[in-house]
Amino acid sequence: MRSEGQSARTLVMTFRAKKYNIASPLATEPTQNVERLERDESSDDDTDDDTDDDTDDDTDDDAQETTLLEKAKNVDFSNKSQAEDFLTLKEFAKQDRLRRNILHKVAENPPDKGQLKWYLAFLDCLFDRYGSLLESQARGDGFTPLHSAFNKWNTHFVRRAMANRKIKNIGRIFEKQTYNQENVLCFAINCCFKGTKIMIEQCLPSTIAFEQRDLRGNTLLHRLVVKGPPGGIFAEQWEILQLSLVKQLICVHSNVLIFKNSAGNTPFQERLAFLKDEGRGDLIATYIMDFCMRNLSRQDTIDALYRTGEERQTEFDLAGLPSLIIPPGYLKGLSAHLKFERILKYVALPNLSFETDDGSIVKGPSNYGQDKRAIAKESGNRATTKKSRENRQKGLTNMQTIFDWLRDRGVRKIVNVIVIDNGDVAHSDEAIENCLKGFDVEIWNWKRVDLCADVIQCVAGTSAKEISLYCSGNNAVLTSWSSSDGLACLEKFPQLETVKLYIQEGLEKKSQLKRNVDVFTERLKTAFQTQKDLQTRTLQKELGILKEQHGQRGLDIQKKLQIQKEIEVLTEKNLQAKKILQIYSQFDTGPHSYTGSFATLNSNQDSEHAWLKVMEQFAEYILGLPDDPREHIKIAVIDDGVDPSLSLFEGKIASGSSFCLYAGSKNLTNPYFVPSGALYGTVMAYLICKICPRVKLYVARLDESHDVHGKRQITAKSAAAAIRWAVNCGVDIISMGWSIDLFDDRYTQFGNLPLDDLKRAINEADQKNVLMFGSASDRGSDSNICYPANSESVITIGAATETGEMCSWVQYDRVDFTCPGYQVPFKRGDGTPSSPQNGSSVATAIAAGLAGLILYCDRIASGKIDEKLRSKDGMSSAFYNMSWMAGDRKFPHVSEFFDIEPAEIEHWKGYTEEEGMDESNGKARPSLSTVAKKKLDRILTDLKKSRYYV
Question: What is the pLDDT of residue 289?
Fold first, then answer.
């Protein structure tokens, strides 16, 4: 619905249109016959323009202009002397009552038959002397001379202006908008002008013209994607030109893809509306989607393609799964809430195994998905051949299950594939081909050592632009890859632009390996470039022939269109052929193997986590305030203990207790300060301290065991005891990064007494206003059978990326909030970086730390903690406000509240606890505490605002 301001402006535009007898403000199409454009656009040498001049009002100004134009017809503009004498007449400097100058008049009067040569010479002389007048805008309609030219289909005028080198500001002139807010490029599109591509180039480097809006809020791209073909034989030509212009506009200024018009549509959505949502197979809609998937960030891609509530999954990432064992029904559970786009930006898969219904682990499931009774029958059949048994023991086929599932979900293309396949047994060549065939992969990163180039060629040869290779150090493999039968064959890999080589040391010395890599690089680059040079020469020759044919007179229009399409294809191939192959190499000898992780050559191992960086900077500010240990927030970390050797924990561990007995003992316990090897509790405590530096930790170690698959199992009895201990210690917050399966045999076979006791313990903590954060299940659809996540007294937290995208294994409707839980950095006790941490347990600790920081800030700002903030509803409201401020619902965008620049931190360091006079201005200087309270009070005011839950 248009706002009142827009409606009023539309009325004003309509009034002007009537007063000055111009087109309606919302009419964007010129009214002249399209057949005139076809004749005019066929060639600048044709002289078939037969246009009746518009009759002007009988005013003195118009009469003078007409007289001037009639005089011009008697001038030989190839004669410099005659041209100079004529162009110095005073009439050229005059404007009529509508402020139209001589260029407006010339633009509105296309040449008659036989006058084209004279007319072009006239234009050249005019633009040489009076080119600056092209910027002048007429009163009433706001037309520049170029607008007027397009309005009369006078493309000769436009082309000559574009070609004149003395007009230095032509791009700025294209930005001039009429009173209908249409710039010159809008008029060019309305006229299906072939020279629009050159006009766009002349606008650069400025992008103002591409972002300008008309009365409906449309950008140039909005208008372009809905411009229907004109009538007549020019329709097919326009479709070719239209797609070419869309590509050009997006490439030079992709930001316009996320601009919305007054109807709330981006250009892609506007195109679908124009096609009545029948966009599948449409070349323009397909190109925009492909471009978004390849080049835009995830959020920008979603903004460009989808309306709110209609979003689809644009990637499938299981890289952060806490467990590498996929339970039965996991994919089926994801199917219930994941809707995939037909093109995915990327698929990232770790080295996964599958758990069958009977609880066994399938690591090499050549028979995965096969009927179990048939397998059992085959296993018990003595006639089973040795060969069939061997087949099941060969290469893995795990990933085929996932890629087949993606096909069933409608996925047809994957831009980037990242698969870790570095186990003792890897996937077979055939399995890899079956996984990826038909997906047109562009960035190949299947992390299997010494993979044959033929496998890549079979699956992605014609589409691959970037290929990552992993070498064991065997020089025979390097030689094979760089041979004419390998990657060096341009015919097999026509799109290849980048090769990344990761090489292990193997049996050779590093110096020998380096020589081998240098030879590989030189061979591949030389062979590839030789073929590209030959291809370029061939393509240029073919293009020259086609362009010569296209320019022939009397050519059949269908033949001309066919040649035009071939020229477009060959031009793109020629641009591709001119690209130089880039080759990068890296020795894979670091502590984190490239083969076994999701790191790449472009990855920054020490890259900062944006969300945590904001909180760490705010924590630095907090640490600069006066410290009173009595004000510290008490947080209980209930998990597997904490390693106190980390310097971050110095002075922060207030107390601890263990509820983990030694196996077979009733008296001996595993201490809380000697944690299990997994370091779950250590990671949780580390993250809490990073976010809430003024904290006292209360560490409780739970009793746990592991099932046959290695998955840890927490006992409900120890969890209940730990919670009661924490409550008795007077903690403010309890962090629980674990879950208990309600249908665990320990509770279903022998009654629910331990579980009932855990529920009572949680209720007791809730009654004492202890905030509790619990981890959502990371098993997808099974999360409804886990505790304490399902307790109404617990704030349930799921994992998300640092920018707020929910991890694929988390179900939106089964968490209260999400926090960063993917690729979260962690350092060991010796200060060295450990592998990034993933999972909802990580997110739970971060949420507990954030809640602790909010309580501490409230205590400092007001002298005590607001009781509402101590309740689940009160803290949920604060989290919700942090999410709502950024348009989200469940992910707290902390930068809106806690972002502090380092310079500001330095500024606060200038304050002391003593009040005094500021010598620089003679004013009273408040104490540090006073300044801090004011700042924190502003933050807390926003956090405590009452908002309606949607």
Answer: 93
653 with 662: CB under 8 angstroms? no
pLDDT of residue 937: 85
SS3 category, 281 = coil
CA–CA dist 186, 377 (Å, integer): 72
> 837 pairs with which residues across the strands?
824
Tokens 């197979």 label which residue? 281
CATH number of 629-864: 3.40.50.200
Q: What is the pLDDT of residues 63-121, one digit of tens each?
A: 555 577 777 777 888 888 887 878 776 666 677 777 888 889 889 988 887 888 888 98
Number of Cβ within 10 Å of residue 220's Cβ equals 28
Q: In what order do the strands lie in the sheet with 817-820?
A: 653-658, 695-701, 633-639, 733-736, 771-775, 795-800, 817-820
Inter-residue contact 193 to 150 (CB < 8 Å):
yes
Pairing of strands 582-587, 771-775: unpaired
The number of angstroms, rounded, from the C-alpha of 535 to the middle of its chain's C-alpha atoms is 35
Q: Can you say whether residue 329 is alpha, beta or left, with left for phi > 0 and alpha for psi between -120 and 50 degrees?
A: left
List the one residue out of 15, 100, 91, 103 whose CA is nearest residue 56: 100
- In the chain, the percentage of residues whose pLDDT exceeds 90 is 32
Q: Are strands 795-800 and 771-775 parallel, antiparallel or unpaired?
A: parallel
Sequence ranges of the chain with CATH classification 3.40.50.200:
629-864
Q: Which residues pair with 774 in a beta bridge?
A: 736, 796
Report how far residue 408's alpha carbon sits from residue 786's, in angstroms, rounded to the nearest whole number: 30
Please report, as a single letter, which amino acid is at residue 585. S
The answer to whether 101 touches 139, Cβ cutoff 8 Å, is no
Taking each helix axis from N to C end, the angle separating 716-728 and 753-767, rounded to the nearest 10 degrees, works out to 20
| Separation CA 319–CA 324 (nearest Å) | 9
3-state secondary structure of 60: helix
Q: Which residue has the tokens 């060639």?
A: 43
Provide the terminal-to-terminal Cα distance of the chain, rounded to the nearest Å: 23
pLDDT of residue 759: 92
| Region for residue 192 given its phi and psi (left: phi exceeds 0; alpha: psi -120 to 50; beta: otherwise) | left
If one compares 443 and 45, the residue with the highest pLDDT of the two is 443
What is the average pLDDT score of the chain?
A: 78
**Structural tokens at position 234:** 């020019």
The winner for highest mean pLDDT among 21-35, 172-186, 651-665 is 172-186
For residue 882 the two structure tokens come to: 């942090």
Asked whether 107 and 146 are in contact (CB, 8 A), the reply is yes
Read off the DSSP letter of residue 705. E
Residue 858 has pLDDT above 50, yes or no: yes
Q: What is the arithmetic mean of pLDDT over 328-339?
A: 84
396 three-state secondary structure: strand
Q: Does residue 33 carry a pLDDT above 70?
A: no
Backbone angles phi, psi at 858, to 5 degrees: -65, -40
Q: Residue 66 corresponds to which tokens in the numbers above? A: 């007409």
Rounded CA separation 128/671 (Å):
90
Higher pLDDT, 522 or 636: 636
Map residue 469 onto helix, strand or coil.
strand
Name the DSSP class of 772.
Answer: E
Q: Which helix (H) or strand (E) holds 723?
A: helix 716-728
Collapsed DSSP state (helix, strand, coil) of residue 699:
strand
What distance lies between CA 484 and its chain's CA centroid? 37
- Nearest-5° angle of CA 443, CA 447, CA 448? 125
Predicted confidence band at 322 (pLDDT cuts at 50, 70, 90)? confident
Rounded Cα–Cα distance for residues 771 and 726 (Å): 11
- Give Cα separations from 907 to 62, 135, 620, 902, 932 (angstroms): 68, 49, 13, 9, 12
pLDDT of residue 634: 97
Average pLDDT over residues 770-778: 91
Calpha distance 821→152 (Å, rounded):
61
CA 740 to chain centre: 36
